[in-house]
Design brief:
Strand content: 5-15%
CATH topology: Rossmann fold
Distance between the termini: 24 Å
Strand order of the largest sheet: 3-2-1-4-5
Number of strands: 5
Number of helices: 7
Number of domains: 1
Oligomer: single chain
Length: about 150
C-alpha cells in the first residue's frame, strides 16, 4: 500500500497543474498493477482547500466538485482511509518536537505519523522534502519540480 499525498490528488484533479499529466500517468500505472493507496481525512481536507482556491488556479473546482472528488477517493476500493487515534496523536506531538518542526509542518507531520502507524513505508508526493526528514519512507516523486500547490 502506498501513502498518497495531497499534492498528487491536486495535480490529478486540476488540468492546469504542471504535473497533471505525470500524476495521471503514475496513478494509471499503479492501478494497472493492482496497487492500493492510503489517505487520511487531513489529506482530503487539504485537497478540498487547495482545489477550490481561486488564488492558486485560474479554474478552481467548485466546492461541490471538490467534495465529489474527495468522496470518490475516500470510497474507492483501492483506497484505505486511515484515521488518527490516541497513539497517532501522541506520536505526532513527539515527532514535532523531535524533528524541530514548526507550524507550517503540522499537517504533513500528522499525515506522516498516520501512515507510519498503519505500516505504510512507501509514499507518493510532489513534495518529497516534506517527508524526507522522517527518514522512514520510500518516496515516489512523480514531478519534475516540487509543487507549490
Amino acid at each position: 500500500m502506498i501513502g498518497l499525498d495531497t499534492s498528487i490528488l491536486v495535480a490529478h484533479a486540476i488540468e492546469e497543474h504542471p504535473e497533471h499529466g505525470a500524476s495521471q500517468r503514475w496513478l494509471d500505472e499503479q492501478l494497472a498493477g493492482s496497487r492500493t493507496f492510503a489517505i487520511t481525512s487531513g489529506i482530503l481536507a487539504e485537497f478540498i482547500h487547495i482545489v477550490t482556491d481561486g488564488r492558486r488556479f485560474e479554474i478552481p473546482l467548485s466546492m461541490s466538485d471538490a467534495l465529489g472528488r474527495a468522496a470518490f477517493w475516500s470510497e474507492a476500493r483501492e483506497v484505505t482511509l486511515l484515521a488518527a487515534d490516541d497513539a497517532v496523536n501522541a506520536l505526532w506531538l513527539k515527532w514535532l518536537a523531535e524533528f524541530h518542526l514548526g507550524r507550517k509542518r503540522l499537517l504533513d507531520t500528522l499525515i506522516a505519523v498516520t501512515w507510519h502507524a498503519a505500516g505504510i513505508r512507501e509514499i507518493c508526493t510532489l513534495n518529497p522534502r516534506d517527508f524526507k526528514v522522517f527518514e522512514i519512507f520510500h518516496i515516489h516523486d512523480v514531478g519534475e519540480e516540487e509543487s507549490s500547490y
